Description:
The protein is an alpha/beta fold and about 400 residues long. The protein has helices at about 5-15, 55-70, 75-80, 85-95, 110-125, 140-145, 160-170, 190-200, 225, 255-265, 265-270, 275-290, 290-315, 335-345, 375-395, and strands at about 35, 40-45, 105-110, 130-135, 150-155, 175-180, 205-210, 235-240, 250-255, 320, 325-330, 350, 355, 365-370. The model has no long low-confidence stretch (mean pLDDT about 95). Helix 8 (about 190-200) links the parallel strand 6 and strand 7. The strands form three sheets. The protein has a seven-stranded mixed β-sheet with strand order 3-9-8-7-6-4-5, sandwiched between helices. It has two domains: about 25-45 and about 290-395, Aspartate Aminotransferase, domain 1, CATH 3.90.1150; about 55-290, Aspartate Aminotransferase, domain 2. The protein binds pyridoxal-5'-phosphate. This is 8-amino-7-oxononanoate synthase. It is an enzyme of class 2 (transferase).
Amino acid sequence: MFILDTLKEGLADLDARGLRRRRRIADTPCGAHMRVDGRDIVGFASNDYLGLAGHPALAAALAEGAARYGAGSGGSHLLGGHSRAHEQLEDDLAEFAGGFVDAPRALSFSTGYMANLAALTALAGRGTTLFSDALNHASLIDGARLARADVQIYPHNDAEALAAMLEASDAAVKVIVSDTVFSMDGDIAPLAALLALAERHGAWLVVDDAHGFGVLGPQGRGALAAAALRSPHLVYICTLGKAAGVAGACVIAHETVIEWLLQRARPYIFTTASPPAVAHAVSASIKIIAGQEGDARRAHLATLIERTRAMLKATRWQPVDSHTAVQPLIIGSNEAALAVAARLDEAGLWVPAIRPPTVPVGTSRLRISLSAAHSHEDLARLEMALAQLDEVNHA
Ligand SMILES: *Cc1c(COP(=O)(O)O)cnc(C)c1O
């Protein structure tokens, strides 16, 4: 058989099952109003929750950083690539989001995917048991695999089931890992209950705040600050390409944990540091997030969230009970979800259909992602399009 044939068959199979994905090309910055594939659309697809990805001040900070530090870092953090901008960002983040632990320290990464691989491989090796929420993000699942730990999956947000599993485990090292805000459901983990279990069982609690950082808690300090939790058992990961609007990620924990990661985490050690200009721009973003402009953006986002909840309840589909910027509407089959997304697309509304393996089979959904960049007028357009679709479907 020709070498390419099996792959072609695999792709045809994806087509047949409604699982083929394709990319769209944007000609404008990420924002509520974009030009995508040559058409003007209202975008509900990004994770740019505060509308900062296209903020002129951050583009200016990126340019300033490039003028000061050049284009590339030139090396890994341990071999020449660690700049003043990275160091400053780590200090800024430890101060901003590290209030959950004494002596907080931050370690910056070029992506959240790598930060998760690093945190899990450094804390959980062979002989460790990792307790993982059933709906955790793919990067945490991959981190657990790479760590070669024994993995036990507990039912989504079920602290009681987790308690029983911890009770029954005799692993020398235990690590609990969870998203804070679940990326495809928008609901929030029972963080206080998870931390109580971690403390009772001498376990680490690793939380991935990709969708909470910048949005939740006072000044957007994140999900741990929102829940007012504090413990040396906590290891916090935030990503910087979502609400922060730039790129990268950080692990924040007690300084001893961070020093261990710096010495041992292969996804940290064996990769080129991100461009210093990126770190410089993220520092500028944190100033916006923490200040009055951040407060105003979060307040506006909160009104959009409440309005969307009411709007989705009025449809014939099943909304997920989410109080965050991620507002899913469960449609069911891949084909049905794709059809609804296609109708919205015709109305100039970009709402992605999320399908397996990102979500469980039979729960394909629209993932409406809100941003402070949206206006109430944008939401009114979505509301009208959904109402029209509903009528078509009832007829
Ligand atoms: C997006 C995301 C990541 C990965 O972060 P990147 O910076 O995009 O690599 C990790 N965890 C969760 C929950 C995410 O949603």
